[in-house]
């Protein structure tokens, strides 16, 4: 899988050309007000100033421990919750402004959630569920049903057998295929998959992942693929973004980030992951220390209380997300030339 989408690919409905990101996210922020015992008002910094691009035709994986802000990021990108601040540029146009109102944007960006059952109306047949979106958007009834049947076939569910069934009459894997078909019914360009295969058995998960790869190629889709499972993310992603306590700690090509991580947090995540190699199943408890708390995040680098490389400066200075290679960025003072961290690279001397 290449990072740069094939320039010869005819991107239908494309405006800015293959080099222009499909989605540019800048300064995205969402704080949830909460009331602690004693009535004191506080905020959960669920997403706290996040910048990234999603390139046309790529799969961007988002990883990080539970509670680091992955789902909140996805919901903000979908407009399911309102952002406090930050901007979204969709193919070069500001989302929510005249050229790209939320209504048009939402048709081109769809989401699949983890819980296959909760996403479907229990009183609708799977065909009705898939046809619903197109009907609401003005596609004539007959055509919407035909589209639903075509999509059912495309996701591996024979329409004759499955069209008339209700969600409780099919398996979890089949329901997730229905949800995928439904997400494609409005011909989106970007699909957000939030733990979309996480509830499935390993064998079913592999089938659905392969289906997602086929559909992506066939419909020229771009994916944001959120998962806590690094093996799955490695399999499907071109690039990977690592989040920690509402911020991006590292982003880059999958093989760089997952085989030669630059951030100590990514390293710890990888080390605490069960190995796929049965002869090497030891689990190193590198992620010790206090569990992350987004209500009162640590000063400086948010990872410093759990980090093996932490020095005084790490509790004082917030590391910027810096490029260490053109496509690889990391927020760690130990990797930033001239940061004052003892392990930092020597800054290049200007000639
Ligand atoms: N509606 C909400 N109200 C209050 N806190 C929330 C809400 N939604 C999410 N959070 C908190 O925001 C943080 C990030 O959550 P989430 O985005 O779901 O993380 P992830 O998907 O990475 O597990 C968590 O601490 C979570 O408890
Ligand atoms: Mg989540």
Briefly summarize what is shown:
This protein has 351 residues and is α/β, with parallel strands linked by helices. It is built from ten helices and twelve strands.
SSE topology sketch:
Layout: E1 23-35, E2 41-54, E3 59-63, H1 70-78, E4 85-90, E5 93-94, H2 102-108, E6 109-112, H3 126-136, H4 141-154, H5 159-162, H6 172-184, E7 190-194, H7 202-219, E8 222-226, H8 230-236, E9 239-244, E10 247-253, H9 254-259, H10 264-271, E11 322-325, E12 328-330
Parallel strand pairs: 3-8, 3-9, 6-7, 7-8
Antiparallel strand pairs: 1-2, 1-4, 4-5, 9-10, 10-12, 11-12
Adenosine-5'-diphosphate is lined by residues 32, 34, 44, 46, 64, 66-72, 294.
Radius of gyration (CA) equals 21 Å
> What is the CATH architecture assignment of the domain at 21-123 and 179-278?
3-Layer(aba) Sandwich
DSSP E strands, number: 12
Unreliable segments (pLDDT under 50, ≥5 consecutive)? 1-12
Proportion in helices: 25-40%
What is the count of helical runs?
Answer: 10
Give the strand order of the largest sheet, numbering strands 1, 2, ... along the chain. 6-7-8-3-9-10-12-11
Topology order in helix (H) and strand (E) letters: EEEHEEHEHHHHEHEHEEHHEE
- The assigned structural class equals alpha/beta
Bound molecules: adenosine-5'-diphosphate, magnesium ion
Percent in strands: 15-25%
Shape: elongated
Query: Could you give me the name of the CATH homologous superfamily of the domain at 21-123 and 179-278?
Result: P-loop containing nucleotide triphosphate hydrolases
Mean pLDDT score, rounded? 91
